Automatic annotation (TrEMBL):
Residues 1-12 have a biased composition (Basic and acidic residues). The keyword Transcription regulation applies. Residues 63-125 form the BED-type domain. It is found in: Nucleus. Residues 1-36 are annotated as: Disordered. This is BED-type domain-containing protein. Homodimer. Transmembrane segments: none annotated. Signal peptide: none annotated. GO terms for cellular component: nucleus. The lineage of its organism: Eukaryota, Viridiplantae, Streptophyta, Embryophyta, Tracheophyta. It comes from Rhododendron griersonianum. InterPro entries: hAT-like_transposase_RNase-H (IPR025525), HATC_C_dom (IPR008906), RNaseH-like_sf (IPR012337), Znf_BED (IPR003656), ZnF_BED_domain_contain (IPR052035). It comes from the Eukaryota. One of its GO terms (molecular function) is zinc ion binding.
């Protein structure tokens, strides 16, 4: 049937009727038998593969409900090739085969024929809205899909929110034409207000499911939170929940994106976040919260500690954003070489801000036998963009210098480039640490000590170099300010990493202390801390835990991790000769996990495998490995908020914005398309450069 014959009149159930209400004559399929002619009549009355279920079409007693009748046609007086009348027969719509079709004979033989011979055909059933929910019922190899307008609306609302489309998406005449003509003839467009209401309804339903899911957890929940100002000049606060489920998968769910009333002080932050905790029934399940270094955030911690029942005397409750601290450390280090960086930045800006100069520069690249490229400058306040800008210039230093030096005096020299690239190499460990600590779908608390050691090792090795004396001094001072009193969460979480454990923690702390000249917790204090924390879990969960086994076999092989000093430091540590019955001692006595690539080791998969061996310790590990060490999860919510709350939607109501941001995140999580690994947003900005080459 020509798609132009379809009409947008939603009161018509049969889209094949012409303007006079009559069904057009069947199209000819070039078949000769009476059975085949009957098949053509059925195919013409309804689109192939579609059955229309109408509440008033037929009585329940006379209607044939099986999906096989979409692909077969009953001919009452079927005549074979000899002209003999065989009575009622079911004729396949796609081949000459015929079958008996008595009312009490069943349709299994027809099903088997369709499943074996015509697997590519699928069955679609169109239903009227009657409170039922549509869905897919799979029968053998055939799919039996039931269409309902209400289910379509729910799916449309979820898509609109997850894909960040406007509420008018389903009300567009072109979209309606496409769906009616090529997907579903009975589709009717959905208004903006209806999609808005459906989105809120879906948000409420998914939120109920999420609340039930978190309530059933056997572990605690950690949170990240941050504040953001939208283009409408209103302040918003984001709250993200992090938890490890029963399958040992680390989940990240944005549970609130709320309007934040001024002033943005500690009391308002506390009240807003506590309201979210109560709404999601999380008051008794809070383990930690990760903030950046904003004064109001830090001041609110005492309010939380006085109003929440926090485990372990609150020593794990407040986690400072490690990435924010690294940013402060590197920013101080950039100041001494500011003049050289500024000259390079000005040169790139000079080329990039003029199409004519950019064209001249690309022509000069050809003469220098290098690949032409569009120059892009950095963002002064984001050191990672400066790092990537320098990496993007490595193959174009001569041509950049030649071009800008021919245009104005005081241009670039080889010494400027040498200092800039030397500092770029110096920042590699800081950049790697920032990326690793920004992850939200894998544990990061157990990684911090490794990266602190790598950064401290870099500072120690460069502090005597002439170009780095001032930079190293200022960076070490800032580094020591935040990590001289090492957060205990990083220590105990690293001990829960089977690659590190207690002996590895001791070596990392000793190495960091020696590199920076500071005193960090001793071996005895770390052991006492770990034993005390385990005792609290043992007293709480010992009665419900099954007895642990006496030993566990770990895969061991030669390690090949020469690029990471921290793993080289830890390697070679063996097991203790002492023996104890406690799970903690059993765990600490087994050999360290050593694989070919320690950095790609899946720590959650390891704990899932050994959960029955260490039932109590695994609960402790689940809580300690959950907290994120950066607030990047909240910052990703602000990126989505910036896209949703654009200049055309700057007047969105706060409850709608909360719905859009949260439901999108939940849908992305359901579909498995949340970002699993951190990616610097500026890498896309410099994507046309060779920034991935070393």
């Amino acid at each position: 049937m020509d798609p132009e014959d379809l009409h947008f009149d939603n009161e018509r159930l049969n889209p094949n009727s012409d303007d006079d209400g009559q069904t057009p004559p069947p199209r000819s399929l070039g078949r000769e038998s009476v059975g085949e002619a009957g098949s053509n009549i059925a195919a013409a009355s309804t689109p192939i593969g579609v059955t229309v279920r109408s509440q008033s079409a037929q009585s329940a007693g006379t209607r044939r409900r099986s999906w096989v009748w979409v692909h077969s046609t009953i001919v009452k007086n079927y005549k074979n090739a000899e002209g003999i009348d065989l009575g009622p027969r079911a004729v396949c719509n796609y081949c000459p085969n015929t079958y008996t079709c008595s009312s009490n004979g069943g349709v299994g033989h027809i099903e088997r024929h369709l499943q074996n011979k015509h697997k590519k055909f699928k069955h679609t059933v169109v239903g009227q809205d009657s409170g039922e929910s549509g869905g897919i019922d799979t029968v053998g190899g055939m799919s039996n899909f039931v269409y309902f307008q209400s289910s379509m609306r729910e799916g449309l609302a979820r898509y609109v929110v997850a894909a960040e489309q406007p509420f008018t998406f389903g009300d567009d005449i072109r979209f309606e034409y496409f769906v009616k003509h090529y997907l579903q003839p009975l589709f009717s467009k959905v208004s903006r207000n209806t999609t808005r209401s459906d989105s809120l309804k879906a948000f409420i339903e998914v939120r109920k499911i999420l609340i039930s899911e978190i309530a059933a957890l056997g572990s605690l929940v950690s949170f990240t939170s941050d504040m953001w100002s939208g283009r409408n000049n209103f302040g918003y606060i984001s709250v993200t929940a992090h938890y490890i489920d029963s399958n040992w998968i680390l989940n990240k769910k944005i549970i609130a994106f709320r309007l934040m009333e001024y002033p943005h002080n500690a009391m308002n932050i506390f009240q807003c976040i506590m309201g979210v905790f109560r709404e999601f029934e999380l008051v008794d399940k809070v383990f930690s919260i990760t903030f950046d270094n904003h004064t109001a955030n830090t001041s609110s911690i005492d309010l939380f500690k006085h109003n929440l029942t926090i485990s372990h005397a609150g020593q794990f409750f407040h986690v400072r954003c490690v990435c924010h601290i690294i940013n402060l450390v590197v920013s101080d280090g950039l100041k001494p070489i500011g003049p050289q960086i500024e000259k390079i930045r000005d040169a790139i800006l000079y080329i990039a801000t003029s199409p004519a100069r950019q064209q001249e520069f690309e022509g000069l690249c050809v003469s220098y036998n290098v690949k032409p490229k569009k120059m892009k400058t950095d963002v002064k306040t984001r050191w990672n963009s400066t790092f990537l800008m320098l990496k993007s210039c490595r193959n174009h230093t001569d041509v950049i210098s030649a071009y800008v030096n021919s245009k104005y005096d005081g241009g670039l020299t080889r010494a400027d480039w040498n200092i800039a690239f030397e500092f770029m190499n110096f920042l590699k460990k800081f950049y790697a640490a920032t990326l690793a600590c920004s992850g939200v779908r894998y544990p990061t608390t157990c990684l911090v000590l490794n990266h602190l050691y790598n950064m401290s090792h870099t500072l120690k090795s460069h502090r005597t170099k002439p170009n780095f004396v001032a930079a190293s001094k200022s960076m070490e001072d800032k580094f020591n300010k935040y990590f001289e009193n090492m957060p205990t969460i990083f220590i105990v979480a690293s001990a829960m990493d089977p690659r590190i454990k207690l002996k590895g923690v001791e070596k990392l702390l000793k190495g960091i202390g020696e590199n920076l000249g500071i005193t960090l917790p001793s071996t005895s204090s770390v052991t006492a801390l770990l034993t005390s924390i385990y005792a609290s879990y043992e007293s709480k969960f010992a009665s419900a835990a099954a007895p642990c086994s006496s030993s566990i076999n770990d895969p061991c092989s030669t390690s090949n991790n020469d690029n990471d000093p921290s793993w080289f430091l830890i390697s070679g540590l063996g097991s203790s000769e002492t023996c104890s019955r406690s799970e903690l001692s059993q765990y600490l006595e087994i050999n360290l996990v050593t694989t070919e690539d320690l950095q790609s080791f899946d720590i959650l998969a390891w704990w899932k495998k050994t959960e029955k061996t260490f039932p109590i310790l695994s609960i402790m590990a689940r809580d300690l490995l959950t907290p994120p060490v950066s607030s990047v999860a909240s910052e990703s919510a602000f990126s989505a908020g910036n896209r949703v709350l654009d200049e055309r939607r700057s007047r969105l109501a706060p409850d709608i914005l909360d719905c859009l941001i949260c439901l999108k995140d939940w849908e992305d999580a359901r579909l498995g398309i949340q970002k699993c690994h951190p990616r610097d947003e500026f890498r896309d900005y410099f994507s046309d450069s060779d920034i991935d080459a070393d």
